[in-house]
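Dear support,

We are seeing what looks like truncated structure output for some complexes. This example has four components. We would appreciate it if you could run it in full and send us the complete token output so we can diff it against ours.
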Amino acid sequence: MATGRTHRPATRSRGIPEATVARLPLYLRALTALSERSVPTVSSEELAAAAGVNSAKLRKDFSYLGSYGTRGVGYDVEYLVYQISRELGLTQDWPVVIVGIGNLGAALANYGGFASRGFRVAALIDADPGMAGKPVAGIPVQHTDELEKIIQDDGVSIGVIATPAGAAQQVCDRLVAAGVTSILNFAPTVLNVPEGVDVRKVDLSIELQILAFHEQRKAGEEAAGDAGAVPPVAARKQQPATDQGPDGDVPAVMPA
Amino acid sequence: MATGRTHRPATRSRGIPEATVARLPLYLRALTALSERSVPTVSSEELAAAAGVNSAKLRKDFSYLGSYGTRGVGYDVEYLVYQISRELGLTQDWPVVIVGIGNLGAALANYGGFASRGFRVAALIDADPGMAGKPVAGIPVQHTDELEKIIQDDGVSIGVIATPAGAAQQVCDRLVAAGVTSILNFAPTVLNVPEGVDVRKVDLSIELQILAFHEQRKAGEEAAGDAGAVPPVAARKQQPATDQGPDGDVPAVMPA
DNA sequence: ATGTCTTTGTGAACGCGTGCACAAAGATGG
DNA sequence: CCATCTTTGTGCACGCGTTCACAAAGACAT
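Here is the complete output from our reference environment:
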């Protein structure tokens, strides 16, 4: 019960695959750097290297946007910057509210990467009345009571949640009710949102845990005496049966 | 040239798919919450709802770890918490260094989600000599000069980069040279690392740009009067020739 | 012991994303 | 105008991840 939409059903936005959309900002960044160095054109090979991807993938990605390259030459940097910006919707202004001005919220408010793209911090919001009026990154913090008013007055459609986990769902509900349809969630919780609302989450703890997994694996393999780079990758199905008892058996540390 | 490893070649760690590994922390969090409420067992359906995923996917994920459930009953919460923790390598202590103690670095240092898992902040490092000795989150900041010594003394294998983009690669190189083999990168740059080093990146700006794309799409579809879900998706190859000049021409909005 | 009922574990089908490899397009030089 | 050379755009095949749907496994009641 209560299986509210949580994952975007991958509606396959236009023709553009989600994986490609996720890479466009990467290309844009590399292109912007080239633009600042006044480089007129760039080949798929060069740009791919700068963005850290495969050149074939890059060309396929661009092919979804249209035929913007010139065979034998490459891509016009300025033109491509514009096309990608337009595709991502960065040619317009996106007012954003940040809710929860703790350490992380303040860091976000100060982050320069927002303004340089089309993003503008419309308001900083915190539940602590003591914070009200205190300027962070040159913007006075406002109390949660003002949330609905701000969103409606400024036509905010993107909200950033940087509150503790306990408050996140409640904040999310209020944001959505007030008209926000895209949410960037930094709180370590699964947010429940109605259909049509996009949620992306950034979870520091999860990223570290994934790294720990790989780290452990490296250590384990090393201990196994396998010094070479690429170990017998495929077909390793056996369980670490040497570890503890057989399947059903419970290792030392156990439930009460 | 210099196409150093940047993406993990999906070495397919053990039998466990990368996608599954990425979800394990999610399950772990949901299970921990249940554990705190002293819930003894949980069905795949319930747990899947709590973690915001499909129940079939969850069962398949768990099947990679082994047969830890009981048919007709579900999964033993405590047991599963242990198994996942062990699989992720959280039963051991992971010392972590955070480099770049600006707003974001400070936020990370204060983030509680680390300690609760097996992660311990071994050191905070900043290039600014004025920061040296100043305590952040109860830990005195140390100067970059100490970096190598700290890593070797504490056996640090995970590093977090929260520096400006310009310094990231240099910091990365030093971390790797000193023995770090997993890096969590918050700087908006593509990091170049040798084989065997894992990099995960968290990019605030990119996440917002992806949201903007979907937001623009929603707005566009609404304006097109297309209330239905799936618009004529495929086969849109024509350029927006009505927009501006031909290929080489640069539209109005442009960088300096 | 036997039957019923719940829930897991997984075989199989499908769709998306990736990468190879090459034909077509255009630039450039003679 | 033709030949050559570079680089794009993409058809195709492959592998990973997701989902469905169901048989097998066990709990529980009688």
